[in-house]
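Try this one yourself first.
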């Protein structure tokens, strides 16, 4: 219960910070354009209001779903190797693979700026200056208008092993997926080309992370879910896509344990239903 209360505090605090950031943007825009036409100003304010509404919606979803954990375990593998798959709601920063050596996955952008969402900020807060320094020291692969790109879409990079303070893993895998980690992208179910692209890039990311895990001799990984907008029509489709790919790829990996960490209790229940529908063997 204490953990749930702490998480609720974190969600509320993060929302406050985001709203203050938007307010600062409004003030900066106002100072930069003191003689702007009223209609243009109105449009700009509408856009800022839209951002705040999206933040409120995401925070409400998180707070509504912060209850006791829902979990289920399944067995993957072949006749020669078994891997357990565990689904539950929570945060990857709480992942404890002991006695195995493990890693957590952080969905990010090509610049590997993990401060763009709450999950990444939690990793920085828990991992301390060492994880922040290791991410900053990743070599750039190209220069973009947003900064140095350190990992291309559909790929993953790894930092560690290191002493990451309050994280219980020595490594963090940064994966650049086809969807924003903010989970605010809309996608129509009839947009087959986009869904195909999402599937191809998601599989590429997950496969890349598993290759890095093998080279680093890791036995366990925790993946947070990556989906389209929770209230959008493709939400459960992308949720199913991610779980199916993780199960298919982990089955032939060297891992002993894979955790899929849902963002809410409801999401965990949906994932467990999907796993059963996929025919995964439940423990």
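Now uncover the answer:
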């Amino acid at each position: 219960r204490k953990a749930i209360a702490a998480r609720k505090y974190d969600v509320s605090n993060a929302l406050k910070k985001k709203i203050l950031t938007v307010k600062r943007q409004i003030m900066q825009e106002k100072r930069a354009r003191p003689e702007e036409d009223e209609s243009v100003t109105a449009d700009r304010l509408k856009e800022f209001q839209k951002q705040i509404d999206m933040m409120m919606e995401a925070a409400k979803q998180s707070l509504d779903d912060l209850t006791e954990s829902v979990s289920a375990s399944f067995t993957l593998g072949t006749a020669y190797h078994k891997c357990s798959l565990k689904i539950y709601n929570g945060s990857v920063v709480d992942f404890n693979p002991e006695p195995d050596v493990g890693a957590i996955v952080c969905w990010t952008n090509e610049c590997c700026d993990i401060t763009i969402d709450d999950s990444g900020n939690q990793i920085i807060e828990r991992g301390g200056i060492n994880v922040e320094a290791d991410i900053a020291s990743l070599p750039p692969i190209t220069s973009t208008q947003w900064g140095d790109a350190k990992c291309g879409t559909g790929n993953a990079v790894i930092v560690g092993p290191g002493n990451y303070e309050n994280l219980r893993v020595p490594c963090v895998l940064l994966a650049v997926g086809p969807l924003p980690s903010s989970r605010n992208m809309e996608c129509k179910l009839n947009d087959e080309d986009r869904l195909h692209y999402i599937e191809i890039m998601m599989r590429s990311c997950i496969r890349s992370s598993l290759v890095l895990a093998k080279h680093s001799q890791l036995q366990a990984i925790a993946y947070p879910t990556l989906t389209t907008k929770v209230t959008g029509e493709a939400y459960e489709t992308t949720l199913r896509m991610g779980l199916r790919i993780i199960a298919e790829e982990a089955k032939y990996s060297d891992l002993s344990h894979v955790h899929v960490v849902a963002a809410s209790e409801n999401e965990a229940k949906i994932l467990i239903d999907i796993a059963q529908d996929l025919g995964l063997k439940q423990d």
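Discussion: The CA atoms of residues 77 and 117 lie 33 Å apart. Strands lie at 71-77, 82-89, 102-108, 142-144, 147-149, 156-159, 171-176, 220-224, 257-262, 281-282.
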